[in-house]
Fold this sequence. Notes:
This protein is about 15% helix and about 40% strand. By secondary structure, the chain is mostly beta strands. It has a three-stranded antiparallel beta sheet, with no helix packed on it. β1 and β2 form a beta hairpin. The longest helix is centred in the N-terminal third of the chain and has 4 residues.
Amino acid sequence: MTTTEEAHRHSWRVASAHPVSEGLLTYQQCGCGQWRVTSTPLHPIAHPDLARSPSRC
């Protein structure tokens, strides 16, 4: 049996966004009335291993 929530594909829209010390905090709402909060790092890095600088002797 499928619940209403499982059958619904959410369509999130940003209600508000606020810069915080850790990055960006975003409040989002779906047309069905459900809310969620997301957080984005201040400086996202796609490949952290490539961003590391080699240690110097």
